[in-house]
Amino acid sequence: MLTLDKIFQASIVLKNIVRDTMIVKTSGITDECELYLKPENLQYTGSFKLRGSGYKIAMLSNEEKAKGVIACSAGNHAQGVALAASKCGISSLICLPDSAPISKVEATRGYGADICLVNGYYDDAYQRALELKEEKGFTFVHPFDDEDVIAGQGTVGLEIVNEFADADAVIVPIGGGGLISGVAYAIKSLKPSIKVYGVQASGAPSMYSSVNHGTVECLGSVSTIADGIAVKQPGEITYSIVKDYVDDIALVTDDEIATAILALIEKQKMIAEGAGAASVAAAMFGKFPLKGKKVVSLVSGGNIDVSILSRVIERGLMKSGREATLLIELIDKPGQLKDVSRIIADLGGNVTQVHHERNSSTKNVNGCYLRIAMESKNYDHVQEIKKALTDEGFKIITE
Q: Which residues participate in catalysis according to the annotation?
């Protein structure tokens, strides 16, 4: 059984394994509440996962340690197990689908693990890991549904209470549920007045659906930029803890997550992956009753693939109204582009791209379309520009 004593023991065991990530106060991210961050993206390996795997591995018997550990992951769990095993002086084998990004494979190898690439997808790698566990006698380190793993993650909750006992609420991302189970158990055991809220991506609402329907559910598919919490089915142990200790769970969209990633970069100079930014997105977009409260958003990880970071930033700019595209129907005659550009410039917008196209679908035989990409201040600013264009007789087409 998970106990507070076990979580305290984990905090002692992990002293020489993990970094104590100090809470950071934010500025300019949201006016709704007084927002603080617990930056586990600054943890060794860039994720909280090292805590759970570190405690699990440290608690193995000498015989189990001699045989080594095995895990299956294409992301943060793999790197956590690899480093934790190395710090404990034991061998680790990580099964990865052969489609895993080279950067993640090499990062896992760099932390000391042996790699087994498996043809297919995550489920294929998972099955191979279970086969090797039986063949070689490895100990399997589950990413979330294990009481030692949960206790290790619970040390985050201890640190929050110790450092910021007057917090009103803590927001935690949920994938399989290991992190929020440990955090919620620790916080509610020590200071039950602190609200613990969970957040999932709307494209992967496995725990949200399970809690709302009263039973563990397995989703047919998941789709989200927050790959760290893209879990089809929560754990049995984690589900039980979440439904008893978590006050509420909400969903955030990929656009909201992208906006939060952008806000963290601009306002805090902090890089978060999609899963890590989900808790910030929940605070930014009013998913919980937080007005005037002191709130800690747990930034669970920062291992975002550099190749997709620019696309995520672009999406965040569009969502926040910092970039916009207008499609304008007008008469194809001299001076039209000049007038449109003048209106946008006078209101402080910056045109970054122009595309002119003649199209037979316009009502006027001399009609054409003007597609304009522009930089703007926010969504209200975009609406102001649209109104000014309309007031001067230009027709804006809604796509």
A: 49, 300
